[in-house]
Amino acid sequence: MKHLDPPTFNVTQAIEVCASGITDPDRAQWLLDALPVVQASEAEYRELGPTGQLFEIVGSDAVTPQISATLMGEIYKRHFVRKGSPSRALYEQIRMAPEFGLCPLCAQRIVATVDHYLPQTRHPKLNLIPINLVPACSDCNKRKLAGVATRAEDQTLHPYFDNLGNERWLVIDIQATSPPTISFIVRPAAAWSDVLAARVQHHFRVMGLSELYAAQAASEMADISYSLDEVGASSGPTGIRQHLDVQFRSRYARDANSWKTALYEGLRDSVWFCTDGYRLIRTHLS
Ligand SMILES: [Zn+2]
């Protein structure tokens, strides 16, 4: 999970800009009339987000007597997000925020959409609140849909509020099979609370990250097997270890807990892999 700076605009700006693009005067006025309600919701969200208590926010089936959950969903989709609308630039600011366009929830796939962290069907008052809108890939977006957290531990990570820090916490386990079998494990950092540790594990399960990273790691190893054979032939296990160490340090410098950082650290530290295991990848053409 990648931490993101929250959007630089608040719900007041989101609603005023959105309303300016609505041609139905009644609908535009209803939206503006809802401002005090959604401002209060945003204040509550700002209070509970930093302490990981967003699950405590009570759902509702309407924003105001005039704006049902269905109408708020329509306002989001047909007005706030619509291409060519005045508010589209705000939506794009959220969608385009991550570095290289990578989804902050998996740090692997490309952002395709904007996810409501607390879902719009249960929380129509949060529908246009910028800090409830998180860029996501379509896989993470779909995987997240099913769950509604009723306890702190069951909340997926929130990129604007949760920061996992730079202490190493993603590690691999290598099984001495042919080809080598890699699995990814969350090893809670000392700085994490028990609840945060449980949430990271929960996030990994919901987003399927262990499986995703294992598949990526298998492909990465297939990519490097030829060069490892060359290094091994000329420099032996010591050369392999040094080569993997350079790869590790380069990944670590950018992200202390990417799957690549974990992979190269684990391969470097495995005596079995540096001596024999690298020869068992055997997926290159020979
Ligand atoms: Zn994702």
What does this protein structure show overall?
The chain has two domains: 11-146, no CATH class; 170-280, no CATH class. Strand 3 (170-175) and strand 4 form a beta hairpin. The protein is mainly alpha-helical. The strands form two sheets. The chain has a two-stranded antiparallel ribbon with strand order 1-2. Strands 3-4 form a two-stranded antiparallel ribbon. It has helices at 11-20, 25-33, 35-48, 69-80, 88-95, 138-145, 194-207, 209-254, 259-269, 271-275; strands spanning 113-116, 133-136, 170-175, 181-186. Helix content is 48%, strand content 7%. The model has no long low-confidence stretch (mean pLDDT 96).
Enumerate the distinct ligands. Answer: zinc ion
Query: What is the CA–CA distance across the termini?
Result: 38 Å
Any idea what the shape is?
A: elongated
Q: Round the Cα radius of gyration to an integer and report it.
A: 23 Å
Low-confidence stretches: none
Q: What profile does the largest beta sheet have?
A: 2 strands, antiparallel
Using DSSP, what is the number of strands? 4
**Helix share of residues?**
40-55%
Query: Quick check: average pLDDT?
Result: 96
The H/E string reads HHHHHEEHEEHHHH
| Class derived from helix and strand content | mainly alpha
Helical stretch tally: 10
Strand order of the largest sheet: 1-2
